[in-house]
């Protein structure tokens, strides 16, 4: 199961395994 959480910058998502993947702001909007 992949779980993403947004960093305070609103762009970076950190996956459960600790990898950082680029996310676009529309993910949150």
Automatic annotation (TrEMBL):
Family annotation (InterPro entries): Creatinase/aminopeptidase-like
Entries under SUPFAM superfamilies matching the protein: Creatinase/aminopeptidase
Protein name (record): Peptidase M24 domain-containing protein
């Amino acid at each position: 199961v992949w779980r993403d959480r947004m960093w305070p910058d609103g762009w970076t998502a950190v996956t459960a395994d600790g990898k950082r993947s680029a996310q676009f702001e529309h993910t949150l909007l």
